[in-house]
Specification:
It is a single chain. Helices cover 74% and strands 0% of the residues. It is mainly α. Helix 3 (27-34) packs across helix 31 (562-584), helix 17 packs parallel to helix 19 (358-370) and helix 25 packs antiparallel against helix 26.
C-alpha cells in the first residue's frame, strides 16, 4: 500500500504498516517470501550435487574408447547368438554411419543401445552445426532423426531452440515440455519454454517456469530472475488494468474511510434554519448525509448526498445554503470510490459556487496526490492558504505533502502550526510525533505523544499510532500495551487488533494468538485491507499456502487503486508459483527436510 492523500499518509506513516507494503518490491522479495531462504539454498545445493553426479557419469561415458567400425573376427568357432547379434548391429552401424537418418525403424530397433546412442549423438552434432549456421530447417530435421534413436531431453531442447529462432512458439512449448517430462529439472528447457509462454502471452505459465529455474539455481540465474520480474510486471499490470476497467466504483473499507475523514476536523458544517424558515430539501438531505457519515453509515450517506445534489439541480441552487458543501461532499465520496473524474467535476462545481471553499481545495489536493501530481497539489494548497491563511487543515495537509517528499523539518513545522491553530485537532500531533521518531528525536516524540494522550485520553486512534512508532523502535511490549489500550477505547477499530497481532507474531511467534486478533479485526471490518494483508503473510510464514492464497485473492479484490491492485497481484502470483513448485517437486523438499542431501 502507498501513502496517497490526507490521512492516507497518517495511516501508513509508521513502518510497521510498511512491513506489509506490496509496492516497490523486487521479484526476488516475493519469491523469497514463499520459501524460507535456508530451504531455497538447500534446494539449489541438492540440485547442483545431483546434476554434478549425473554430469560425471556422462563425462566418464564420453571418455570410453570408441569401438572400431569393423567387427572383429571371432576367436572361437562356437560364437554365441548374442555375439553374432552384436556383430550384426556393429556392421549395420558401420553401413549407416554416414546417413543414419535413412535407416528404417526396424533397422534402428535391431541396433543395440550403445549403437543407437552413438548414432543419435552423431545426428545431434550435425544438427548443432546447422543450427550454428542458422540453417534451422535442416537442424530440425537432424534433431528429429536423433530422437528416433534416443529420447534425449537435450535433443528436444535443441530442436525447441530452432523453433524459437523461427518464432514457432507453440512447437517450442511442445518440445520443451517433452524435454521436461524426461528431466523435470532441466533449466535450459524451462527457460526456453518460459520465453515461449511469454511470447504467446501465457504469463502465468511463463512466470512459473522462470520461478522454477530460479529456485533450482538458488536465484543465481540472472536471466531467469530478471525475466521473472518482467513477466510478473506484465501479468500484474494486465490483470489490474482489466479489473479496474470493468469494475464499478465502490467504497473501500470502513476503517480506511474513517482514517481518511480523521485527517479533517469534520466533513462539513450543518445547514441551520434562520428566521423561522424551514431548511430547503437539499440542505436537509445534506445534514442527513453528515449524520450518516458520523455514524460510519457511508452507503446511506452517499444516498443522501446524491439526493441533495438532485434537489440542488432541480431548483438551480435557489434557497440552498450549502450548495458548495453538497458538491464537495459528493466529490469526496467519489474520490474514496476511486471515481476520480466525477470527483474532480464535483469539486470544481463546488469551487465555481464558492471560490474560497477551502475544503474543496484540500480534497482536490488529495485527488491530485493520488494522481502523483505534486506540482498541482502544491498549487491547490497555495490557493487554500490564500482563501484562509489561518486554516489548520491546510497546514496539516501541507505537512502531509512534505512528509511524502521526506522533507521532515518542513512537515514538522506545518504540523506544529496546525496544532497551534486548532488545539483540538489531534492528527497534527500524531504526525508530529511520527516525524520526530523518524528523524531520531526520540525524547521529543515521546513528549509529543505524552502531551497528546493527556489532552485526548479517549482517542483510540492516538494510542494505535503511538503503538506503531513504539514497535518501530523495538519497544514491542510497550507497543502491545498501547494497542490493547486502543482496543479498550474503541473495539470497533480494526487497526489495533492487526498491529497487536503483527507485534505478537514477530516477537513471540504466537501464531494462534495473532490469528485470533486478526480474525477479530475482520469481524469488526470484514473488508479491512490491512487485516487481509497481515493474515495472508502470517499464513505464509506458517506454511499455510492455500489459506494465504485465499487471502491474497481477497486482497486483490479489495485493492482501491490500480497501483495497489498490481502490488497485490504480484504477491499472489509469486506465492502461487512457488506453491505450485513445492507441489510438483516434492522430492526436493522431502530430501532436504529428511536430511537426504
Amino acid at each position: 500500500m502507498t501513502d496517497n492523500a490526507g490521512d492516507k499518509a497518517v495511516q501508513k506513516s509508521a513502518s510497521m504498516l510498511e512491513k506489509l507494503n506490496l509496492n516497490e518490491r523486487s521479484w526476488k522479495f516475493y519469491a523469497a517470501a514463499s520459501i524460507p531462504p535456508a530451504l531455497v539454498a538447500g534446494l539449489a545445493l541438492w540440485y547442483y550435487s545431483s546434476r554434478s553426479s549425473e554430469s560425471t557419469k556422462k563425462d566418464d561415458k564420453k571418455k570410453r574408447p570408441r569401438k572400431g567400425k569393423k567387427a572383429k573376427k571371432s576367436k572361437s568357432a562356437d560364437d554365441s547368438a548374442e555375439e553374432k547379434s552384436a556383430a550384426a548391429s556393429t556392421a549395420s552401424l558401420d553401413a549407416n554411419l554416414e546417413a543414419p537418418e535413412s535407416m528404417t525403424d526396424a533397422q534402428i530397433d535391431a541396433l543395440n543401445q550403445e549403437a543407437q546412442a552413438e548414432l543419435a549423438q552423431s545426428l545431434k552434432s550435425r544438427g548443432n552445426k546447422f543450427f550454428q549456421a542458422k540453417r534451422y530447417e535442416k537442424a530440425i530435421e537432424l534433431y528429429t532423426q536423433a530422437l528416433r534413436f534416443a529420447k534425449d531431453p537435450v535433443f528436444y531442447s535443441n530442436r525447441a531452440a530452432c523453433y524459437a529462432a523461427s518464432s514457432d512458439h507453440e512447437k517450442v512449448i511442445q518440445d520443451c515440455t517433452s524435454a521436461l517430462e524426461l528431466e523435470s529439472r532441466y533449466v535450459k528447457a524451462l527457460i526456453r519454454r518460459a520465453q515461449a509462454f511469454e511470447s504467446t502471452e501465457k504469463f502465468r505459465d511463463s512466470l512459473y517456469d522462470f520461478t522454477t529455474a530460479c529456485i533450482l539455481e538458488d536465484f543465481g540465474n540472472n536471466l531467469a530472475a530478471t525475466s521473472a520480474e518482467r513477466v510478473l510486471k506484465k501479468l500484474a499490470e494486465a490483470e489490474a488494468h482489466e479489473r479496474v476497467e470493468k469494475r464499478s466504483p465502490r467504497l473501500p473499507s470502513k476503517s480506511f474511510i474513517s482514517g481518511y475523514l480523521n485527517s479533517f476536523r469534520n466533513s462539513g458544517e450543518e445547514a441551520v434554519a434562520t428566521d423561522g424558515e424551514n431548511l430547503s430539501e437539499a440542505d436537509a438531505l445534506f445534514n442527513e448525509a453528515l449524520s450518516f457519515t458520523a455514524l460510519q453509515e457511508y452507503s446511506q450517506a452517499i444516498d443522501s448526498v446524491e439526493k441533495a445534489v438532485a434537489a440542488v439541480e432541480k431548483t438551480d441552487g435557489s434557497g440552498v445554503q450549502r450548495v458548495a458543501d453538497i458538491y464537495s461532499l459528493r466529490g469526496m465520496f467519489n474520490f474514496l470510490k476511486s471515481n476520480l473524474d466525477q470527483a474532480l467535476e464535483d469539486l470544481n462545481k463546488a469551487l465555481v459556487v464558492e471560490p474560497n471553499h477551502v475544503r474543496s481545495y484540500l480534497r482536490k489536493a488529495n485527488l491530485f496526490t493520488e494522481k502523483k501530481d505534486l506540482e498541482e497539489v502544491l498549487s491547490l494548497l497555495d490557493q487554500a492558504h490564500k482563501a484562509d491563511s489561518e486554516n489548520a487543515e491546510t497546514f496539516f495537509q501541507q505537512g502531509q505533502v512534505h512528509f511524502l517528499k521526506q522533507e521532515f523539518e518542513a512537515a514538522s513545522n506545518d504540523y506544529k502550526r496546525a496544532a497551534e491553530l486548532d488545539p483540538d485537532f489531534v492528527y497534527p500531533r500524531i504526525q508530529l510525533g511520527v516525524v520526530q521518531f523518524k528523524v531520531g528525536k526520540i525524547e521529543e516524540a515521546m513528549a509529543t505523544f505524552d502531551e497528546a494522550m493527556k489532552k485526548f485520553p479517549t482517542r483510540s486512534d492516538l494510542y494505535n499510532y503511538y503503538g506503531e512508532v513504539l514497535a518501530e523502535q523495538g519497544g514491542y511490549d510497550s507497543a502491545i500495551g498501547a494497542f490493547e489500550k486502543a482496543i479498550e477505547l474503541d473495539s470497533t477499530n480494526p487497526l489495533p487488533y492487526v498491529n497487536q497481532a503483527i507485534s505478537l507474531f514477530q516477537t513471540s511467534g504466537q501464531p494462534d494468538r495473532a490469528l485470533t486478533l486478526i480474525r477479530e479485526a475482520l469481524k469488526v471490518d470484514p473488508e479491512c485491507e490491512l487485516a487481509v494483508a497481515a493474515l495472508s503473510q502470517i499464513y505464509l510464514q506458517m506454511g499455510m499456502f492455500e489459506e494465504s492464497l485465499a487471502m491474497l485473492r481477497r486482497a486483490v479484490d479489495l485493492a482501491k487503486s490500480e497501483e495497489e491492485m498490481i502490488s497485490a497481484i504480484t504477491f499472489r502470483e509469486t506465492t502461487a508459483a512457488q506453491f505450485r513448485f513445492m507441489k510438483e517437486h516434492p522430492e526436493l523438499l522431502s530430501k532436504m527436510m529428511g536430511g537426504g542431501m
